[in-house]
Design goal:
11 strands; 2 helices; two-stranded antiparallel sheet; 2 domains; alpha+beta; 8-stranded antiparallel barrel
Length: about 180
């Protein structure tokens, strides 16, 4: 094969890979991972959420953890499943109303009722918003404190794989041109 046909073949393979990747992303709802951290007077925490998009700009958190320090309930807690998703539900103790919804492109990333995390001994932590940049960490012992809440989306593995495949393709074309 001459240089031009090798380059054309590399471009064709790259475009085929791109179409397959885009098609597979649209074929199934993929969960996206979000990481978060927060801090307030006497409490700090961080964790992750795996969520599925249920409407434009709206994600339902399906699983996750929150590791919190300070306050009466500390340690690693897990996201409580929402039996009424996407509608709100009462927490196991009945202390909180929660929906586990995320709005990552909004001024208010979680709403009120918010996210509910539980531990194995009946402890519950609710993270919710009263409005933009007005978040609260509230546990079922009555401890509550305003927090700064900082979420960020983690790039999807498919996006990273597609980027890597593009770099490999460019490297192959450059290598063929040099030969």
């Amino acid at each position: 094969m001459d240089k031009h046909s090798c380059a054309a073949r590399a471009v064709q393979l790259g475009l085929t890979g791109l179409m397959l990747a885009v098609g597979s992303m649209h074929a199934a709802k993929a969960a996206e991972e979000f990481r978060f951290s927060y801090s307030g007077d006497g409490v700090v925490g961080s964790g992750f959420l795996s969520a599925e998009q249920i409407a434009p700009g709206v994600w339902q958190a399906l699983s996750g953890t929150d590791t919190t320090f300070g306050g009466p309930i500390s340690g690693t807690l897990t996201l409580a499943p929402n039996p009424n998703a996407p509608d709100a539900a009462y927490s196991p103790s009945g202390y909180f109303y929660f929906d586990n919804l995320l709005f990552p492109n909004s001024d208010e990333v979680v709403d009120n009722p918010g996210l509910l995390f539980v531990n194995g001994t009946g402890g519950e932590v609710n993270i919710f918003a009263y409005g933009p940049d007005n978040y609260t960490h509230y546990d079922n012992t009555g401890f509550n404190v305003p927090i700064t809440f900082d979420p960020s989306a983690v790039p999807e593995p498919a996006t990273l794989s597609l980027f890597a495949a593009g770099l490999v393709g460019l490297g192959m074309i450059r290598r063929r041109k040099a030969a």
